[in-house]
CDP-alcohol phosphatidyltransferase family protein
Amino acid sequence: MRIIGAGTRDNFEYRLLTTFWTVPNLITMVRFLLVPLFVWQTLSMHYGWATLTLAVLGSSDWIDGYAARRLDQISTVGKWLDPVADRVALIVIATTFVATKIAPAWLVFSIVIPDIILITNALVLFHGNPNLRVSTLGKVRTALLLVGTPLLLLGNTDWGKGTVLGDISTWALALACVLHVVAAIQYFVQAHRKSRALKSGSEWSG
């Protein structure tokens, strides 16, 4: 079964909706609402519930993309709202982990610093969202982060301590952070290429 790009219809011409009120966008908004719930659960040391919340967060990222393609509800709002939801969730989750000493500081640095550079770069070049296509590498990176973080929490529960969960989550998150930096470099280069193409009047294909 195809995981990345699931729900894509072959030989089908998708519409681009301008309305906010689509099923995928509503799922994305639920993702936003789950972030503060996760923070409260983690600070309260309810790691089991926090793990469940993270699992829902991770699955919703896949579900809203599937719904957009399957229901033909790809929208202009969704194109920027979905990556913003990803960025907010990852930054807040990483910061919460480091602040509560569940994870080392390199986790938040490797996520936050590249994102700050990309956001600054986008504001300078485009005064907003550059509307770049999400790469497969970026999707794999996000999947690893959203799988590794629940495992990290499970490793801090009473029954998870002393098991291999901690080692598995550390390796998954380390790989995800490496991919995050690589993906950030790719987006940085693509943004400059798109900016140059637009300034020269050339058509940008992505």
Notes: The chain is about 70% helix and 0% strand.
